[in-house]
């Protein structure tokens, strides 16, 4: 089963993608659910990342989208060679961090595959 994953604590899909709705994605609001869905369903055909995910249940700053991207790269053990993703965060610094980490890692994996 292929699916798309939308990580955002506040926005709905149609606020980011004008022609799509929450019906087109599995929407997750925090890093815990992000990891849980991927571990249960496998890598989605597309991940759309927000970075700033509000507060957790203890009113502490929640683990962010960059932490989710780092989990994918360093801990998940999933082959990300064909990962498709978009960063829709309004945070320009974090957007660049997520984009850079995933772009560079995927480029590395693809270059290893050619050797």
UniProtKB/TrEMBL annotation:
Residues 3-104 form the Cyclic-phosphate processing Receiver domain. Pfam families: cREC_REC (PF20274). It comes from the Bacteria. InterPro entries: cREC_REC. It comes from Flavobacterium soyae. This is Cyclic-phosphate processing receiver domain-containing protein.
